[in-house]
């Protein structure tokens, strides 16, 4: 692991009277899987949306490889090298797996042959090679989730933002997804992942950061962070922490 790929410095977002994210700073290192945790409403999705160009931060900078992308449009952020998966996967239902995986390729090239070869490689990477010609609406929910990951990979990101990749998955599927995300990192892609399933975060993350009421309250090794009194207080309340001590 070497150097910062993403540097988030002092970003904030307010919706009317609600301060959803407050002067948030953190970094993602080259080759790192960073877990982003926090109770419901803590500001995780808002932070993701600012990095991905869906929300313009009210203040602060977001640098990818040293270039400020804060306030850029989603397609500019994508071209800069950030891919994103969504909690609800929405592939083009009438397109096949390979066709879905070709769409992202056109953001970088217009060479159809090359784009198809890259899409087929990603289908194999996902274990969907035998379903390359299957229309997306005929896939199982879990295969659609894998396709969602593949669609993000097809834009050739340096950093992948992943949102709740195992929601609704069986334990076996969750384990398969953990292995896939590790393989994504082995391809040289860094990962920032929001996930409520603690087992997945613990299995995947090199480091974890925690948000509460829009502010960063912890940054460290997974096992240290999940036992920190401040984090337990955010999730379970003051009384729980007092009862344990
Ligand atoms: N577009 C919006 N307009 C108004 N308020 C919003 C908007 N988006 C988010 N919020 C509010 O901002 C706060 C942070 O929401 P956000 O979705 O970022 O939290 P989260 O940590 O992702 O939560 P969850 O784990 O439940 O998805 C919440 O109080 C939410 O209601």
UniProtKB/TrEMBL annotation:
PROSITE patterns documented for this protein: ABC_TRANSPORTER_2
Secretion signal span: none
UniProt KW keywords: ATP-binding, Nucleotide-binding, Transport
CDD domains per UniProt: ABC_Mj1267_LivG_branched
GO biological process, one term: L-isoleucine import across plasma membrane
Pfam families: ABC_tran (PF00005), BCA_ABC_TP_C (PF12399)
Stretches assigned to the ABC transporter domain: 6-238
GO CC terms of this entry: plasma membrane
InterPro entries for this protein: AAA+_ATPase (IPR003593), ABC_AA/LPS_Transport (IPR051120), ABC_transporter-like_ATP-bd (IPR003439), BCA_ABC_TP_C (IPR032823), P-loop_NTPase (IPR027417)
A GO molecular-function annotation: ATP binding
Domain of life, per lineage: Bacteria
Protein name: ABC transporter ATP-binding protein
UniProt lineage: Bacteria, Pseudomonadati, Pseudomonadota, Alphaproteobacteria, Hyphomicrobiales
């Amino acid at each position: 692991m070497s150097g910062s790929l993403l540097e988030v410095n002092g970003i904030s977002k307010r919706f009317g009277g609600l301060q959803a994210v407050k002067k948030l700073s953190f970094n993602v290192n080259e080759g790192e899987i960073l877990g982003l945790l926090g109770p419901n409403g803590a500001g995780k999705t808002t932070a993701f949306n600012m990095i991905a160009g869906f929300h313009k931060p009210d203040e602060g900078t977001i640098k990818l490889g040293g270039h400020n992308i804060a306030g850029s449009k989603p397609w500019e952020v994508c071209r800069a090298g950030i891919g994103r998966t969504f909690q609800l996967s929405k592939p083009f239902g009438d397109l096949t797996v390979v066709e879905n995986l070709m769409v992202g390729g056109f953001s970088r090239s217009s060479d159809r042959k090359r784009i198809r070869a890259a899409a087929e490689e990603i289908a194999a990477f996902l274990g969907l090679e035998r379903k390359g010609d299957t229309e997306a609406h005929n896939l199982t929910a879990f295969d659609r989730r894998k396709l969602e990951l593949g669609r993000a990979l097809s834009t050739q990101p340096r950093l992948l933002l992943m949102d709740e990749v195992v929601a609704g998955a069986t334990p076996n599927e969750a384990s398969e997804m953990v292995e896939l995300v590790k393989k994504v990192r082995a391809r040289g892609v860094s990962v920032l992942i929001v996930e409520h399933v603690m087992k997945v975060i613990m299995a995947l993350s090199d480091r974890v950061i925690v948000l509460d009421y829009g502010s960063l309250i912890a940054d460290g090794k997974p096992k240290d962070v999940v036992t920190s009194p401040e984090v337990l207080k955010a999730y379970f309340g003051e009384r729980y922490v007092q009862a344990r001590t």
